[in-house]
Amino acid sequence: MIDLLALCAFHAAYADAIDSDALEQWPGFFADDAHYRITHIENEREGLPAGLVYADSRAMLEDRVTSLRQANIYERQRYRHMLGVPLLLTSGANEAEARTPFMVARTMATGEMQLFATGYYQDHFVRQDGRLLLKSRVAVCDSTVTDTLLALPL
After folding, report:
1. pLDDT at 71
2. What share of the chain is helix, strand, coil (3-state, %, to 5)?
3. Looking at the domain assignment, is residue 16 inside a domain?
4. Confidence of residue 148 (pLDDT cuts 50, 70, 90)
5. DSSP secondary structure string, 19-45?
6. Residue 62 to residue 51: CA distance in whole angstroms
7. Which of 39, 62, 114, 127 is the most buried (most CB within 10 A)?
8. With a threshold of 0.70, does the pTM exceed it?
């Protein structure tokens, strides 16, 4: 059974990979055929599939990291995730669904800090080869206004 403790440990490792700039580890939290999307609350309520970021495989996430490292030009920044306790919606031996609130602070190279994003993750987890992975993660942001510097994954 996938339990709350397993989800909390997963979230801690996920956030640490992003916050410590170990972005090459980030795609490893997803199943091969995973879906990842960042959207806002109004799009989600209306069932609109478009997102600010959209990927439908781990390979697309790996490409995103490669482009962040080698091709994209953006101001150096760091994130710090503060995650709430997951609300376990369904749970079985090899699958679970959960909703987890998040807050992300962003620190720019200048030292300027701001609360960058708040919202929740709508997740579908699967257990594959003994590992907990995301089959789907939709990061639903509370604000409909998004900074153009959404470079790093949420």
Report:
1. 75
2. 25, 45, 30
3. yes
4. low
5. HTT-GGGGGGGEEEEEEEEEEEHHHHH
6. 18
7. 39
8. yes
